[in-house]
Structure formats: structure tokens, C-alpha cells
């Protein structure tokens, strides 16, 4: 018999009428001949209310007790949902994470799922019950209750769909699908018929709160097609699968992370181990760092800038102050009035003219770009928070995201063709054997020696310069791979570096030198011989330890890191060209235990 997992988010179970409506959807699916597992979130704003309550009794509540508290929200919902199903004449049993056997590690408030037992759920399904599972929670080895991080019910749903080899996983929410950007922020956003796992992963971790990023990791790892749709209507929504909505579209969506803060360390001794020292102190505090940009100065000192969530700024500053003391860093600047705007698309990996289009749109809106980082499928910029909204709108318009792309797949076909195949199921069973479900998954370590680097120092703090640089570079038919721009808040100047194919270095230098003189930048330098080392896998950003392991292994091999960029599926570092082979060998050794 086909099996469906249906997840209902907080706003979809916010009151008794909504709970009854959700129960009806599940009963209907059962009557259509499916076994049904429901995954339910806490009602409405319950989780926020519980957090607020906790903060009233303790400024820094113990994480274990926080989980004890937060998990009650979902326990209320599942019980009410089971009662609702009964009242409508069907059989249902509610289960907590612990009762299902969702085993996690012990990282309270951010726990990772290790395994899920299916025995109890299968027995209950076979005897005709709708199984109602509490989202967002599990238990650790010592039977302590854990939670999976905000928005984690999505992750419970996709994990259950994976272990039960469900035929579909439906995420019912208060929007009718995944849009090109948050439709509540921008009414002109367009609903997509389909989005690829990789694109959704990036968007989810760059601010598109519609899906928990770890749920998308599960989807990708275990081949679970995910259908995001409305709990209030029956229209088909958006499928998250392997393929993008349409081929060759450079950008499928954009996202905003409003609550960011920037930290810059000026005058970091440019030697192996400095980054490791800094980031391991942040890692120890479980702080998620993004937009890491390092630029090497003339005097053997580097500047390192990165962003952290605004509410982790205080803890982050504590961590970097420790490091500053230890390493002899000149000064630390920070800014908590910034926001990150990102564009994402599988198509940008294959075409030029994407970065300059984004930067031109920002310049047109009068927005100054403070920092830039890129990966194969995304470009992120840091801007002032009060300009973020107009920045997002300008970027959305520049890529015509409100228009359906040519060759877009049709919704009915996509939904119909997205069932997992028998081969998928075999693959998943093999993948699950002997491994924790959310364990680090690395599938490739590689070396690219085809690139060279150009750096423009002392770029003044005015809109339009990045646009001009990349327009001219694109006009010269040069394909740019990585772009990083760091920013020193105090002096209001940026350092912009990018990589180009070796054979194009002199053309790129001609462009850079001309623009540097037009815009009165401090200077241009280049390195003809760089090596890019990459580690690829799934969920590399949520596993913050990956970058750390790379830093450690390169530092032990005496190799200095020049540039860094990270995405969900890959971490790239640029090192001196003479260290390519040695770096590759040390990374292969460092990741030997998790390489699959
Ligand atoms: P739930 O409680 O059902 O889990 P969430 O609030 O977590 O719902 O997620 C749904 C919300 O995500 C929507 O109301 C919408 O405002 C927001 N959102 C952000 N980005 C997007 C996007 N790209 N597409 C659709 N919704 C988005
Ligand atoms: N109730 C939890 C939260 O609000 C989990 C979820 O809704 O997904 O974050
Ligand atoms: Mg959610």
C-alpha cells in the first residue's frame, strides 16, 4: 500500500478548526488507499511563547531544560490531532519523538538525527491507524529529550519519509509553494513548479524560511521528493527534486537574511593556523559563520571578515577577542546593522554575466556592496540593513524572477513523475546501512590548478564599482569563478579579489588596472599560480566542522589559505599554486574516514 507523510506547520494547526481541517486531509488520503503518517508542529506561536517564558526565568537557560520545555509544544499538537481524527471517525495514535525511536546526538537545541526505528510506526499503520508524530524532537542515548533546531519539524517529516520509504512527503504550510523570494516580503514573487535540492538547500540556509535546510539535505541524500503546498487549498505546490524548474536559468530565486552581523579582524598574522585558531573558537561555541572572506595584505598580515547571526554577535566577539589576544591581531571591527542578499541558481555555474547583472541592479538602486562571496550556484552580498529591502527588490527585478522561465516544467507532470523508483529505494537502503542519518557525507575532494587571482585593494566605499569591474570582465569574455570582497568598516574601503582562467590573467589585469586608476583604488596585484582545493558533499555548511577540518589539515601541512568560499555542497579554499598537490594529499588523508 502506498505511504504518504504529511507535515503540518505551526500556522496550519494554530487553532481547533485548523487541526480538524488537517485531520480531514489525512483521513482523505487514507481513504484514497494510502497509509498516512502525519508530522505536526507546535500550534501557532507556541514555540516563541515558550522561549519568551524561559527568558523570563533565566537569561541563559540550560539547553537540556530548554528542550524539555520546547518539546511540549509538539506534544500538545499531536494529542489534539489524534483526538480530532478520532472525532471524525478514523483511528489514530500520537507518538512523541522518543516513542517513535528518533535517536539523536546530545547537542541540545540543535540535535542531529542518528537513526529512526520504524517497527512501531509500521505496526500501527498496518492495523489501520493514522500515525501522528511529534515534529522537531528526539531522544539522545541517555533518554534526554532533544530538539532539532527552529523549523525542525520539516526535518522530522523528511527523515520519516526516508526511513519508511514513503511514496511522497507533503509539507503543508501557510503558502502554496516555494516562491522566487518570500511572497510576504515581495508580492511580485512567483511560485515555482519545481526547484532542485541544491537550489533549495542554498535558499533555505540563506534566509528562505519555508523549508528547514536539514530537511532538504535529507531529501537529497535519501531521494525523497518533497511537495511544498498549502494546507488551506488543494492546489498543487512546488516539488523539490533533483532537477531545476527550467534548464539554463541563471538565477531561480533570491533570499534575504536580515539579522546578520559582520566581524572584521584586521592585521591577522598571515601564517598557517591563524584561521584555524579563530574559527575553532567560534566552532566550539556552535556559532554558524557565513561569508568568510580573507584578503592578504602587502605586509604579511591578512584581514579576515565574516558574518554571524546577529543574536550570536556577543558570543562571537568573545571568541574572536580570545583569538586576537593569542595571535596578536591589530584590531577588531563589527557592524550589527547589515543584511545579506543572495541569488541562487544551478544555471549560473555555466554562464558569464550573472555577477555583473546582480551588482548593476544594486548600483542602480543606490546600494553599496560591503562584502561579496560566491559559490558555484550562489552569490551573496552584504549591505546596510536599511537598504536591504530595496536591494532585494532590485535583484528580483533584474533577473525577471516574476516571469515564468522558458521551458519550465508543468506542475501536474512533475508531481506525477516524482515518485521514487525501485532503484532509489535500493540505493537508500544501502545508504542507511551502518551510518548515522545526518552524518557528514563527502563524495569528492579535488584540485583545480587552472585559475589565477586578481586583487584590487582600497576600493572606495561607493555603489557601482563591482558592477563596472565585472561588466568589463564579462565584456572581455572572461569567465570568473570565485569572487570575494572584504570590507573594513573603519576605513570604509574594500578589497576585491576574483579568479579567472590562467590564460585570461593578463586581459583581466588590463581591465583591473584601468578601473583601479579610474576609481582611485589603492592598487592591483595578481597571482598567476594558485590552486583551488575543494571538498564536496551534502550539508557542508550545517556541518561546521568541515571547514575546520580543512583548516587543520592544511595548517598541519604548513599551507597558508588565501581565499575561502563555502556553499551547502562544497567548500573551496585557494592556496599557493606550489602547494596544490601537497594540499590535496593532506585533505584526502583528513577526510579519509568520511569519504564515500
Ligand atoms: P510552517 O509553520 O508551516 O513551518 P514557516 O513559517 O516555517 O511555516 O514557513 C512558511 C513561510 O515561509 C511563509 O509564510 C513565507 O512567509 C516564508 N517564506 C520565506 N521564503 C519563502 C519562499 N521563497 N517561498 C515561500 N515562502 C517563503
Ligand atoms: N515548533 C518548532 C519551531 O517553531 C518546530 C517547527 O515548527 O518546525 O521552530
Ligand atoms: Mg517551518
What does this structure look like?
- The protein has 596 residues and is an alpha+beta fold.
- The chain folds into 2 domains: 1-171, Acetylglutamate kinase-like (Carbamate kinase), CATH 3.40.1160; 255-403 and 444-590, VC0802-like (2-Layer Sandwich), CATH 3.30.2130.10.
- Helix content is 35%, strand content 29%.
- The strands form 5 sheets. It has a 10-stranded antiparallel beta sheet. An 8-stranded mixed beta sheet has the order 3-6-2-1-9-11-12-10, with helices on both faces.
- α7 packs antiparallel against α8 (213-221) and α11 packs antiparallel against α15.
- It is globular.
- The structure holds adenosine-5'-diphosphate, aspartic acid and magnesium ion.
- Magnesium ion binds at residues 9, 151, 154.
Strand and helix map with partners:
Layout: E1 3-8, H1 16-31, E2 35-40, H2 46-57, H3 63-87, E3 92-95, H4 97-100, E4 102-104, E5 113-116, H5 119-126, E6 130-134, E7 137-139, E8 145-147, H6 153-163, E9 168-173, E10 194-196, H7 197-205, H8 213-221, E11 226-230, E12 238-241, E13 253-269, H9 274-284, E14 290-296, E15 301-309, H10 313-327, E16 331-344, H11 355-364, E17 371-375, E18 378-384, H12 388-398, H13 411-416, H14 422-432, E19 441-448, E20 451-460, H15 465-475, E21 483-488, E22 493-501, H16 505-518, E23 523-527, E24 530-538, H17 545-556, E25 561-566, E26 570-576, H18 580-590
Parallel strand pairs: 1-2, 1-9, 2-6, 3-6, 9-11, 10-12
Antiparallel strand pairs: 4-5, 7-8, 11-12, 13-15, 13-16, 14-15, 16-18, 17-18, 17-21, 19-24, 20-22, 20-23, 21-22, 24-26, 25-26
Helix pairs in contact: 1-3, 2-3, 6-8, 7-8, 9-10, 9-17, 11-12, 11-15, 15-16, 17-18
This protein binds adenosine-5'-diphosphate, aspartic acid and magnesium ion.
The site of adenosine-5'-diphosphate has 18 residues, from loops.
